[in-house]
Amino acid sequence: MEPNGILIYGQLTENYTIEPVVLELLTKSRELKQKLWNQRVMTCIIGPRINYDEIIKTLGEYVSDEVIVVCDDRLKNYDKEYYSYIFTEIAKKNPSRVILIGATNQGKEIAPYTAAELETGLTADCTNLDISDNNLLLSTRPTFGGQLTADILCSTFPQMATVRANVFKSEKQWITPNVTFDWFDIDKIPKKIEIIEINKKAKSFNNIENAEILVSGGIGACHDNGFALIHELAYKLKAKVSGTRGAFEKAYISKSQQVGQTGKTVAPKLYLAFGISGANQHLAGINNKSKIIAVNNDKNAPVFKYADIAIIGDLFDIIPKLIDEIDKEEEYEQ
């Protein structure tokens, strides 16, 4: 069977809704399929025996032509071996030209297994996708430690890529997808690891990818009490804390809080940048729909070219004043 169409891994959240990155991939796939002779877009869902009506409706709203559901109560919790095997078998049953997977923790486990089994290439952690003049998937990703981006063509099929969250917008349209429920004998799936117990950790306060407001610090905040002020302001704004690669390397933030080509891609409504010069590697991690307020004592800081509001000044003077104004507003409301 000739490869045809785009297959997407439809990852579910813990509450059995669609991960936002899947909707972003579906929206992008509408653009890609127009360049691939209008080939079909398929989404594969793996999970327990539940009612999938709302999930299927959501996928239809974002124009998944087909939805393939594999459900079994033993798939209630994510299991690398079960999920990877099942998704790979679905890919074999539905030979596709392109396979797209979100660059989530799950996706980063499933994608290399699938690529190895299908004997094809994989471009990981992409920040853009397109179709080349010779109708091959063109995948863009950071390279050389985020100093450059590379456009990568894969000449083997299927052409596979994992894609960061928040790099594409998600937009609704509407179709009624064709739905197929597939079945696997779970007991016959090869297993090397047996899950004995699952202990779920509380999600970190600083899970920045879905934050509406981010208070972010760069090298300019990496001394004295700069990040203490940033944390205090974030608390007042009910925001989350993030930073640059430089702030991570100096251990003021964790890797999960780093924004940029070698960190997370974020799409907050408001991004407050303190002591950040504005290198392209950092700004590439901020969605262009985010409103940026930048504070820097260097009037020539590159970040000001991208800021909606630019404040030339010392963050050590400005942040305390902002905190004071918030406190006054709270007292007034009381």
What does this structure look like?
The protein is of the alpha/beta class. It has 2 domains: 6-188, HUPs (Rossmann fold); 208-333, TPP-binding domain (Rossmann fold, 3-Layer(aba) Sandwich). Helix content is 28%, strand content 23%. It is built from 8 helices and 15 strands. It has helices at residues 20-34, 53-61, 80-93, 105-118, 226-237, 245-249, 280-283, 315-333; strands at 6-9, 41-47, 66-71, 98-102, 122-126, 128-131, 137-143, 148-153, 159-163, 178-182, 213-217, 240-243, 270-274, 291-296, 309-312. The chain has a 7-stranded parallel β-sheet, sandwiched between helices. α5 links the parallel β11 and β12. α3 (80-93) packs across α4 (105-118) and α5 packs parallel to α8. The longest helix has 19 residues, at 315-333. The mean pLDDT is 92.
N-to-C SSE series? Answer: EHEHEHEHEEEEEEEHEHEHEEH
* Broad shape: globular
Reading side by side through the largest sheet, how are the strands ordered? 5-9-4-1-2-3-10
Largest sheet: 7 strands, parallel
* CATH fold label of the largest domain: Rossmann fold
**In DSSP terms, counting alpha (H) and pi (I) runs of 4 or more, how many helices?**
8
Ranges where pLDDT stays below 50 over 5 or more residues in a row are none
Question: How would you state the average pLDDT, rounded?
Answer: 92
What is the highest CATH level, the class of the largest domain? Alpha Beta
The CATH homologous superfamily of the largest domain is called: HUPs
Number of β-strand runs: 15
Percentage beta strand: 15-25%
Instruction: Classify the helix fraction into a percent range.
Output: 25-40%
End-to-end CA span:
69 Å
Structural class: alpha/beta
